[in-house]
């Protein structure tokens, strides 16, 4: 029965994608016919549909000999996903304008050429600006006060990165930049808040990305949690063992004590559907801890703030949303989550949701930025704690 539901669901998705892409393809065909009279309809629709479904083609587990071509299809398909979203927004508006001009009696003979040229120019601007937002990273610094002490006067510096999505698109070049910037923070602790992988572990291993992550340096250690994409990839055991071999502990409903604070790592919410035992509650994870000490928790998806605050968490770190990645998706994530990006004080608990460092699908961001988080945790006994903390800072790198 479950398999049948999955088949119907998959067929429904394919049908919707097919209709959406036919709508987009039809408009592009009209434009190309106007620009290139005599173009072959058969050749056009074949090429268009291959590009439209290239991402799905690249996701198929092809034989090893075909994998390089499949990776190429996935890259092409990822950019098409951004173009598809752009088209879904602007084409209905263009059709509406065409219809209104007709009602007004305006001559529309040149409309296709002029509208097509305008949309192509807007698409180019969208892709260039979106690419800049995806690859040009911002470091956001948050000074946070916690009325607890670890017996030292210095603030605790915590570097946070989420949603790296390392794979065929986000690769070693972007990863090296992240490692350099985080190490420049001279952090006491480094936290990776889920979705380090972009589904498959194969490009992560093939491109030796663990060797780059191995270069992360923190006084009291580097810790990570699982995100939904690690679950989708299905290689959690292999991934956690590989991370452990380079000195990065992946916390799965586990707590470690370091630098006088507790680092709590929850399994991702996906575990509730994909693992028989699900995941532990926050109160279960914190049971028996000395809550006079600071508690920093990573939970990839930003949910359950009330329960975490009541359980005694001081800082909750999440990612997952990418802040929608491409506008106007951020309007949707803002409605889905209590906090889809930024900072929130929930009772006494500080919540920070990152828009993430990498990207899923197209390496394009609009109304969202690639970011790293630097926390300056001010504790009782530190000089800065008795002073008014600095406001959050943003630095472009």
Overview of the structural elements:
The protein has helices at residues 2-35, 41-52, 54-59, 67-103, 111-135, 172-184, 202-206, 209-213, 228-233, 236-245, 271-274, 282-286, 305-311, 329-336; strands spanning 138-146, 156-161, 189-192, 222-225, 248-251, 254-258, 261-265, 295-298, 315-318, 342-346, 349-353, 371-379, 393-396. It has a seven-stranded mixed beta sheet. A six-stranded mixed beta sheet has the order 6-7-8-9-11-10. The longest helix has 37 residues, at 67-103. It is 45% helix and 17% strand. The protein folds into two domains: 2-133, no CATH class; 137-396, Purple Acid Phosphatase, chain A, domain 2, CATH 3.60.21. Strand 2 (156-161), helix 6 and strand 3 (189-192) form a beta-alpha-beta unit. Helix 1 packs across helix 4 (67-103) and helix 4 packs across helix 5 (111-135). The chain is α/β, with parallel strands linked by helices. The termini are far apart. The chain crosses the membrane at residues 7-30, 42-60, 72-91, 111-130. This is Phosphoesterase.
Average predicted confidence as pLDDT: 93
Q: How many DSSP helices?
A: 14
Q: Which fold name is given in CATH as the topology of the largest domain?
A: Purple Acid Phosphatase, chain A, domain 2
Strand order of the largest sheet: 5-4-3-2-12-1-13
CATH class of the largest domain: Alpha Beta
In terms of structural class, how would the helical and strand content be classed? alpha/beta
Proportion of residues in helical segments? 40-55%
Q: How many strands, which pairing sense, and closed or not: the largest β-sheet? A: 7 strands, mixed
InterPro entries: Calcineurin-like_PHP, Metallo-depent_PP-like, Metallophosphoesterase_sf
Protein name: Phosphoesterase
Keywords: Membrane, Transmembrane, Transmembrane helix
Pfam families: Metallophos
């Amino acid at each position: 029965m479950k398999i049948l539901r999955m088949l119907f669901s998959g067929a429904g998705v394919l049908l919707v994608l097919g209709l959406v892409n036919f709508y987009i393809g039809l408009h592009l065909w009209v434009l190309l016919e106007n620009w290139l009279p005599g173009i072959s309809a058969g050749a056009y629709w074949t090429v268009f549909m291959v590009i439209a479904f290239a991402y799905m083609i690249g996701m198929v587990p092809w034989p090893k000999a075909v994998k390089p071509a499949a990776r190429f299809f996935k890259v092409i398909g990822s950019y098409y996903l951004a173009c598809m979203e752009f088209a879904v927004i602007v084409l209905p508006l263009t059709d509406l304008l065409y219809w209104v001009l007709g009602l007004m009696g305006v001559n529309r003979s040149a409309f296709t050429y002029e509208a097509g040229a305008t949309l192509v120019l807007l698409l180019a601007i969208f892709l260039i600006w979106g690419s800049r937002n995806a690859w040009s990273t911002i470091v956001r610094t948050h000074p946070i006060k916690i009325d607890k002490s670890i017996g030292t006067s210095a603030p605790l510096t915590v570097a946070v990165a989420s949603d790296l999505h390392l794979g065929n698109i986000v690769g070693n070049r972007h990863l090296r930049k992240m490692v350099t910037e985080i190490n420049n923070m001279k952090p006491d602790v480094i936290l990776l808040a889920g979705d380090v992988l972009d589904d498959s572990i194969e490009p992560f291993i093939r491109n030796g990305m663990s060797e780059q992550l191995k270069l992360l340096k923190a006084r009291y250690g580097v810790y990570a949690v699982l995100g939904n994409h690690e679950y989708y990839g299905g290689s959690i055991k292999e991934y956690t063992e590989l991370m452990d071999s380079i000195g990065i502990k992946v916390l799965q409903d586990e707590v470690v004590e370091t630098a006088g604070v507790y680092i709590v790592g929850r399994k991702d919410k996906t575990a509730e559907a994909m693992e028989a035992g699900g995941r532990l509650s926050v109160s279960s994870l914190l049971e028996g801890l000395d809550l006079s000490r600071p508690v920093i928790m990573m939970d990839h998806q930003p949910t359950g703030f009330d329960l975490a605050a009541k359980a005694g968490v001081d800082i909750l770190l999440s990612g997952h949303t990418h802040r929608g990645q491409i506008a106007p998706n951020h309007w949707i994530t803002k409605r889905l989550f209590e906090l889809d990006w930024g900072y929130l004080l929930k009772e006494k608990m500080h919540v920070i949701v990152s828009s993430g460092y990498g990207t899923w699908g197209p390496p394009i961001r609009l109304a969202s930025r690639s970011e790293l988080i630097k926390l300056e945790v001010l504790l009782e006994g530190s000089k800065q704690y008795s002073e008014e903390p600095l406001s959050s800072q943003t630095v472009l790198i």
